[in-house]
Design brief:
alpha/beta; Aspartate Aminotransferase, domain 1; five-stranded mixed beta sheet; 12 strands; 16% strand; binds pyridoxal-5'-phosphate; Cys/Met-Metab_PyrdxlP-dep_enz
Length: 367
């Protein structure tokens, strides 16, 4: 995607020529006559500020319709409504903990089955498909292992078995990847992350190409009501204008840091797929994660990602807290694993901060 195209799409189409998107706070819209409408009736159903963002985003994702929701989890929950008891969905094994928790709830409460599979292993996924399988749910870059799945073969497999392919594109964004163009049916984001980009808006977005899917999701969006507020929609639209700049910078910083961390004493494993700003580090057993986190000065110990600041998260007790210990163990989520979302700061500042925090986190050897 070209940078200029991205900025242009994010510009408002307002007739006044306003460069920034107007925020329409009105929840209700006056009808000129009985049976007529301006196209806007009630804000849960449609709001001009939200529509402006949704239209821009659908273009970026190469889709036809986007639905902005009150959080990334609300976006996933919106999609869950496409399935009924007995349906089975094959899901990325190495997945965001909150999505795992929601799917577990849907399994217990509504009888939708979620089977965790390793999308890095095509043959196992293929063999896992049964007559009840209705969809594949893939996080293209696994979390927190940061392995990138080659999704193309799954688009072909899905078509053959009439499955929906659902992609969580949060870590890549439409700047780096447009799955609808490649063959996906539904793309979702926690827009709280790179799309908003400044850690000041909680939001989600679902995008599709197919008209039937758009109609169904549009009905659910209005019916369930977890639609995005006008102000938050404005913030997302504003975020789009700098998405390319922020992605370029955090990817650049992450690539440099990954290289540096391979040679750092105290780090046993660097998990980075080479794209985007997300990586994980496994500390050596002689280094303490709690000491490392409390000694950070530039990077921030906080639980989110995709913002301008570098965030370091401790998946074991944060993002994956509700995952049973044996499941965490299978995924390599232990007390030495840290997840980093690299920000847009000066690279040197990030590197120096990590080095100094590592030095302070080494356990003193008693002789
Ligand atoms: C990959 C991924 N998907 C979905 C979500 C849920 O998004 P939200 O926190 O905006 O509800 C998250 C949150 O961290 C995430 O990392």
């Amino acid at each position: 995607m070209k940078n200029t195209e991205l900025s242009q799409i994010a510009l408002t189409q307002d007739a006044t020529g306003a460069i920034a998107n107007p925020i329409y706070l009105s929840t209700a819209y006056q009808h000129p006559h009985l049976g007529t409408s301006t196209g806007f009736d009630y804000t849960r159903t449609k709001n001009p500020t939200r529509s402006a963002f949704e239209e821009s985003f659908a273009k970026l994702e190469r889709g036809t319709a986007s639905f902005a929701t009150a959080s990334g989890m609300a976006a996933i929950q919106l999609i869950c409504n496409l399935f009924k008891a007995g349906d089975e969905i094959l899901v990325s094994f190495d997945l965001y903990g909150g999505t795992f928790r929601l799917f577990d709830f849907y399994e217990q409460q509504y009888g939708v089955h979620f089977k965790y599979v390793d999308f890095l292993n095509y043959e196992t996924v293929k063999e896992s498909i049964t007559e009840n399988t209705k969809a594949l749910f893939i996080e293209t870059i696994s979390n927190p292992q940061m392995q990138e799945v080659d999704v193309d073969p799954y688009y072909i497999l899905s078509k053959k078995h009439h499955l929906l392919t659902i992609i969580d594109n949060t870590f890549l964004t439409p700047y780096l990847s447009t799955p609808l163009e490649d063959g996906a049916d539904i793309v979702l984001h926690s827009a709280t992350k790179y799309i908003g980009g400044h850690n000041d808006v909680l939001a989600g977005v679902v995008t599709v190409k197919d008209a039937n899917l758009a109609e169904k999701l549009g009905e659910f969006h209005n019916m369930i009501g977890a639609t995005l507020s006008p102000f938050d929609s404005y913030l997302l639209q504003r975020g789009l204008k700098t998405l390319h700049l922020r992605m370029d910078r955090s990817e650049y910083n992450a690539q440099l840091l990954a290289k540096r961390c391979y040679n750092l004493k105290g780090i046993d494993q660097v998990l980075y797929c080479g794209r985007t700003g997300m990586m994980s580090l496994r500390l050596n057993k002689n280094y303490k994660a709690d000491k490392f986190l409390e000694n950070l000065k530039v990077c921030i110990f906080a639980e989110s990602l995709g913002g301008t600041e570098t965030f370091i998260t401790f998946p074991y007790t944060q993002t994956h807290v509700d995952m049973p210990d044996e499941e965490k163990e299978k995924r390599g989520i232990d007390e030495h694993l840290l997840r980093l979302s690299i920000g847009v700061e000066d690279y040197e500042d990030i590197e120096q901060d990590i080095i100094q925090a590592l030095e302070k986190s080494k356990e003193s050897v008693i002789i």
